[in-house]
Amino acid sequence: MHKDTVKGAAKDATGSIKQAAGKATGNERLEAEGAAERVAGKVQKGVGNLKDAARDTLKN
After folding, report:
1. Whole-model pTM?
2. Considering the chain, what is the average pLDDT of its residues?
3. Are 9 and 45 in contact (CB under 8 A)?
4. Which of 27, 29, 32, 2 is nearest to 15 (CA)?
5. Distance between CA atoms of 28 and 8, rounded to whole angstroms?
6. Fewest CB within a 10 Å sphere: which of 6, 41, 53, 60?
7. Crossing angle between the packed helical segments 28-59 and 3-25, to the nearest 10 degrees
8. Please, are residues 6 and 53 in contact by the beta-carbon 8 Å criterion?
9. Cβ neighbours of residue 57 under 8 Å, at least 6 residues apart?
10. HEC letters along the chain
11. From CA 45, how far away is CA 4, in angstroms rounded?
């Protein structure tokens, strides 16, 4: 597993928590920050998965 995959998953989880906290408190800014962080985390996870796939392909 590539480090980008792990970091992306952590970012996604953090964003999810921020987004939920923003919804619960009515804080639109926090909710938007959480949503943006989730997207960034999903992209970073995807990059990590692509790097893993490329490494696996090159090994074979």
Report:
1. 0.84
2. 94
3. yes
4. 32
5. 23
6. 60
7. 160
8. no
9. none
10. CCHHHHHHHHHHHHHHHHHHHHHHHCCHHHHHHHHHHHHHHHHHHHHHHHHHHHHHHHHC
11. 6
